[in-house]
Amino acid sequence: xxxxxxxxxxxxxxxxxxxxxxxxxxxxxxxxxxxxxxxxxxxxxxxxxxxxxxxxxxxxxxxxxxxxxxxxxxxxxxxxxxxxxxxxxxxxxxxxxxxxxxxxxxxxxxxxxxxxxxxxxxxxxxxxxxxxxxxxxxxxxxxxxxxxxxxxxxxxxxxxxxxxxxxxxxxxxxxxxxxxxxxxxxxxxxxxxxxxxxxxxxxxxxxxxxxxxxxxxxxxxxx
Amino acid sequence: xxxxxxxxxxxxxxxxxxxxxxxxxxxxxxxxxxxxxxxxxxxxxxxxxxxxxxxxxxxxxxxxxxxxxxxxxxxxxxxxxxxxxxxxxxxxxxxxxxxxxxxxxxxxxxxxxxxxxxxxxxxxxxxxxxxxxxxxxxxxxxxxxxxxxxxxxxxxxxxxxxxxxxxxxxxxxxxxxxxxxxxxxxxxxxxxxxxxxxxxxxxxxxxxxxxxxxxxxxxxxxxxxxxxxxxxxxxxxxxxxxxxxxxxxxxxxxxxxxxxxxxxxxxxxxxxxxxxxxxxxxxxxxxxxxxxxxxxxxxxxxxxxxxxxxxxxxxxxxxxxxxxxxxxxxxxxxxxxxxxxxxxxxxxxxxxxxxxxxxxxxxxxxxxxxxxxxxxxxxxxxxxxxxxxxxxxxxxxxxxxxxxxxxxxxxxxxxxxxxxxxxxxxxxxxxxxxxxxxxxxxxxxxxxxxxxxxxxxxxxxxxxxxxxxxxxxxxxxxxxxxxxxxxxxxxxxxxxxxxxxxxxxxxxxxxxxxxxxxxxxxxxxxxxxxxxxxxxxxxxxxxxxxxxxxxxxxxxxxxxxxxxxxxxxxxxxxxxxxxxxxxxxxxxxxxxxxxxxxxxxxxxxxxxxxxxxxxxxxxxxxxxxxxxxxxxxxxxxxxxxxxxxxxxxxxxxxxxxxxxxxxxxxxxxxxxxxxxxxxxxxxxxxxxxxxxxxxxxxxxxxxxxxxxxxxxxxxxxxxxxxxxxxxxxxxxxxxxxxxxxxxxxxxxxxxx
Amino acid sequence: xxxxxxxxxxxxxxxxxxxxxxxxxxxxxxxxxxxxxxxxxxxxxxxxxxxxxxxxxxxxxxxxxxxxxxxxxxxxxx
Amino acid sequence: xxxxxxxxxxxxxxxxxxxxxxxxxxxxxxxxxxxxxxxxxxxxxxxxxxxxxxxxxxxxxxxxxxxxxxxxxxxxxx
Lengths: 223, 752, 78, 78
Ligand SMILES: Nc1ncnc2c1ncn2[C@@H]1O[C@H](COP(=O)(O)OP(=O)(O)O)[C@@H](O)[C@H]1O
Ligand SMILES: [Mg+2]
Hints:
The complex is a heterotetramer, with one copy of chain A (223 residues), one copy of chain B (752 residues) and two copies of chain C (78 residues).
Chain A: E1 2-7, H1 14-24, E2 27-32, E3 43-46, H2 66-76, E4 81-84, H3 86-93, E5 100-102, E6 110-118, E7 134-141, E8 145-147, H4 150-158, E9 162-166, E10 178-182, E11 188-191, H5 210-222
Parallel strand pairs in A: 1-2, 1-3, 3-4, 4-11
Antiparallel strand pairs in A: 5-8, 6-7, 6-9, 9-10, 10-11
Chain B: H1 6-11, H2 26-36, H3 42-51, H4 54-57, H5 62-70, H6 74-77, E1 80-82, E2 90-94, E3 97-105, H7 107-112, H8 114-130, E4 135-145, H9 151-171, E5 175-182, E6 191-201, E7 216-221, H10 233-236, H11 256-271, E8 277-280, H12 285-296, E9 300-304, H13 317-322, E10 328-333, H14 335-347, E11 352-359, E12 364-368, E13 371-376, H15 378-382, H16 397-403, H17 415-426, H18 435-438, E14 449-451, E15 458-461, E16 469-475, H19 478-483, H20 485-502, E17 506-515, H21 522-542, E18 546-552, E19 556-557, E20 560-561, E21 565-574, E22 591-595, H22 606-612, H23 624-639, E23 645-648, H24 653-665, E24 669-671, H25 679-684, E25 691-695, H26 700-709, E26 714-720, E27 724-727, E28 731-734, H27 735-750
Parallel strand pairs in B: 4-5, 9-12, 17-18, 24-27
Antiparallel strand pairs in B: 1-2, 2-3, 3-6, 4-6, 7-10, 7-11, 8-10, 9-11, 12-13, 14-15, 15-16, 16-21, 17-21, 19-20, 22-25, 22-26, 23-25, 24-26, 27-28
Helix pairs in contact in B: 5-21, 8-9, 8-11, 9-11, 11-14, 20-21, 20-23
Chain C: E1 2-10, H1 17-29, E2 34-47, H2 53-64, E3 70-77
Antiparallel strand pairs in C: 1-2, 1-3
């Protein structure tokens, strides 16, 4: 089971995502932003970081890299794709997911151990959670406020596409406390918190993030 | 102005030059004539003036700093792979790994433009570490500001914090600790110190030297612009008189994205083993890099300065030599490897240009469009700057200051008064919750952070397989240093050392950032002399080498110098980070022990500062042998699994330590204070050499036996329990109430 | 040589925390009568040769702004 | 009601990393002839009543920009 992790210039959590895939029992495969090749992986992670410095808008420039052409095509064909933080921003900028992520309402970068409720467990990336499971996962972002128009938000809710919601504290002003969403099919998931920083007890916020990576392994092997 | 060439300098000995405007003394200018046998060209003058400045030449401080290299023992030399004097020293941490770390100041720029000043401070220290061959793995930021409620602090602090976060987060370096201290003396003169730590394999150590005639000199990274050359623009102006306000900015804007690419690109180059020497470009830019590389190597370099890629084509050669544009590096590469070097740079979208060549002439020669504009012995630029023996004298006011002790001030007496004092101190700006600051920093990136703020030291894992890791802490109590600079510097060292040891790490090496007022004031110079002597003596006592550091002078507003602030960073090693000792109480029923001796030491304390706005008396006594014994106990207890938590006692004394350990996981304690002490003294004295530890019942006998065998003072003072700090017979303070007070302070001042 | 100026502002219905903060600061330091503040981005692009207006609009829409949250205006000064 | 527009740009001699990144992106996605890109901030301030030009300039200089690294321009549209 090969999971690709894309490195854009300015990606930071790519090595951590690869480690998380390994901890989950998968084989991480490094993908390069300039390549037109997904190396026959079974799933792709777009990691966190500041691609192109997050200058302009987070994810806006990365979206035009050659590898994204491939990722977009493959995602439309059903390949599981997880965008974490900057990766989520890239997915929105690429229109694989609706809405956008804007500057935190308090205007500061925030790093905290964040409570979440997993709202949808039938995606490629969350099948390992139980419905409405409450977890703690590291959150760290400067532009993490999820926004979309009311119509889109209602549709996301109606179709059960809100994957995770913030608990207790809304850390960035996200509308309806949205921490993550998926596309209709459930293969593409975007998430602000960082499950790759929650796979080992010793580092990060615990092990609550691991099911993101084990889910996709069973998904692909099973399906 | 026409180009000032070497030839022209020889022919026009009488031409007047703006040496005074560049901050040079008449004898220094005369010395250039002696060295060169003619007047310097304007480019040479630019190089000498910047390299012989206080910042680059350490001219006021080096007579004192040299103790760091002299007071060394074999024990201190043992872990040293590279000593002081390189970009940063390197120590062996075992298993084939080496670590380099260093702290630097960016005080003045951060006052002028808080965000960019602080950001570029982080950028500079990271390149220093990178240039040793190491992958940077963490940063820390010791900060000092004026009063928290002062208007200017509202401008400076949020900008500085955002700048450190903005740069460090974007580089992907976890921020694992630092300090936030407020004192009126820092108003108008904030201290922004930045520490970086890096890791490499032994065989990857790189040095800044240009050897091998014919090897190519490559400048890579950002293009050169007119940054940070304010004063030198005078050289490029038509006449010195009409220079007017410098058109060139003295503040630089950082590009962390560029730096991230520079890091990855440089590490890939190191991995292929294709550089023979490397140097970062920091203060004094190309002047520094070329002269230092050349003088450390075979002694010669030829540079074609017009090849330097520019952001601003109007720059003069003098300005190019002085520019402090950020995110640049210089490498010396064998001709056979140049192509591959450029290829790797291209992969990372990093501009790289061959601008020079190593020679065996013993001269640094710089050409500008075919004309020779610099021809100097590089060592004279890099290392032969002046040495000042500045007068220093213990100030007359020191006696009066020390006589004005805090021990006589009115104290809280009743349980209620003590309770109110605990609460008031916990909410005071120096002791309150710092997460308003630290939550703006990514502490998790790279996935190796084992401990970070608010723990006593930050810990990062170095090796996934073996669990090898390092711990770092930085500390300094400037009030103690003001009361007694010698004792104060050793107290800073002791606190930092203790903070590393409480996490279970074995202290290994020291770095420092010496922030002081004007060296032209004999009182300040005395503080500096005392502090450096104290650190050299102290490190010898503790058996730790000083591997590097930084001096920042002229930190004062008018006549008012800052508190002497020798920030000390200590690095420690853990063979297995799984054994680390965290700070918080967690499991009810575990026993709380106080290690060390509490004396009536309240002068310079946080209590005197907050409650009485008082500073006077003598700081707590410091005994480094006691610190060594305490560290030994803490490290062994951690290794043998005898303790589950530990927290050192410093600012705010026992009371504040209990507050912090209780709030960490929301688990409180029941405490009985020793009968033989005034409860107020027991709670608020800031005696050094102490820590609280939490011992599981099952390990109590082994632990107390260990302390007894070493004759180290230890007493059981309580038990982990409940949701309050309950001091028997005196007061009970619910954690909810405490947390509200402790965490409200900074958001109330700086916004939600 | 032409200078193309692209102004990008958040759509009115999107919360603008930076504008709000500036508004608060203006009230505090005393600039009377401020009803609203919005903060956006300004790009100044120097172009040599022919300026292709349609292409610029495309770039402003796809790269320089995100139409989900932002509006833009383009002005060419020759 | 007046609208005051304050444009704040980094001084020409100061590095503009954002502009540089946008320049790179424009080259990659293909906008020919771009020589330079600078990215700045645009503030739109709605003011009710009298607009005090001198005070606005003061505010632009002290709050909206840092004159050490930035230049500003103010325009009032009534
Ligand atoms: N500017 C900062 N950046 C990162 N961490 C900080 C900063 N200021 C304080 N901290 C962290 O907050 C905690 C408490 O700080 P402090 O009270 O100075 O610790 P100590 O007394 O143990 O030295 C420590 O973990 C310290 O590293
Ligand atoms: Mg401590």
